[in-house]
Amino acid sequence: MTTSNENKTNMLTKQDLNRAVFHGLGMEWGWTYERQMNLAYFNMVRHALEKIYKDQPEKLHEAMVRNCEFFNITPQLAPFVGGIALAMEEQNAKSDDFDTKSITAIKSALMGPLSGIGDSIFLSGIRIIALGVGIPLCLQGNFLGVVLYFLIYNIPAFWLRFAGIYKGYEIGTGYLDKLKSSGLIDKVMQAASIVGIMVIGAMSITMVYTSVTMQIGSGDTSASLQSVLDGILPGMIPLGVTWLYYWLLGKKKINILWLIIGTIVVGIAGAYFGILG
Predict the structure, then answer these.
(1) CB proximity list for 48: less than 8 A, separation 6 or greater
(2) String of DSSP letters for 82-96
């Protein structure tokens, strides 16, 4: 990794990146329903942002607001995304015409794919292996089972956090200028935006559980309204609910707590009257 000791154009040192990793260890401690890991992510990059924009208070304020946006990812991969974002923040600090929307676009594009990979590796892979080694020893009363579980799971997790932020920062500082000068940066941003939209679409249908149980017709000719809607557009209701919440949050500025309460009330009422399932 290239640090400021090796390249004076870089603002952050290896110590700054290490500090960011340690500040990002509680990636799931500050989880909220509205923006999920955004507070923990902001805490991870906050000190680096203060160093990058130390003489630019207006840009610092904008960066802090920008880095408090929605964020959710496998915790061990958050530093990699943070490293790329910090490198882009450096570019913004050095330039007067940097498109800051590209920072959000890159983060949004990486969250979904990396979460799929990270969850599979850590939750479905390494964690199961660690439990397979540790549980038999614990059942025998051997304390080594706890130690081995802790080491097997956490050594790769911590290694990936540090290696991730170094590599992310290296990618950002090493290739952003080349992409910008060649004109490829616009294509990368467009592709990142497309991937981000695809991820949101996939999340809408897989994470918003809404179905209609009403029947159309009677007897052998009856059909569920849900099957009719799926024939027109699969996932129509989850997509509609997602856009409704987006409109209520973004346009009407409805508090997320009221939306949660409203969801509970509508869900209970819909199930009671046999409308929703």
Answers:
(1) 12, 16, 17, 19, 20, 86, 89
(2) HHHHHHHHHHHHH-S
The answer to whether 68 touches 34, Cβ cutoff 8 Å, is: no
- CB environment 70-109: b (16+ within 10 A), e (fewer): ebbbbbbbbbbbbbbbbbbbbbbbeeeebeeebbbbbbbb
CA pair distance 98, 217, nearest whole angstrom: 59
* Strand 223-224, strand 215-216: pairing: antiparallel
Question: Is 97 in a helix, a strand, or coil?
Answer: coil
DSSP result, 193-210: HHHHHHHHHHHHHHH---
User: Of 143, 267, 157, whose CA–CA distance to 212 is shortest?
Assistant: 267
Residue listed under structure tokens 């992409």:
179
How far does CA 116 lie from the centroid of its chain? 11
Put residue 141 in one of left, alpha, beta given phi > 0 → left and psi -120 to 50 → alpha.
left
Judged against a pLDDT cut of 80, whether residue 122 lies above it is answered with yes
Q: What amino acid occupies position 175?
A: Y
3-state secondary structure of 117: helix
Give me the chain's average pLDDT, please.
86
3-state secondary structure of 214: coil
pLDDT per residue as tens digits for the range 243-270: 898 899 888 889 888 998 999 999 999 9
Q: Are 165 and 21 spatial neighbours (Cβ–Cβ below 8 Å)?
A: yes
Q: How far is CA 132 from the centre of its chain?
A: 29
The pTM score is 0.71
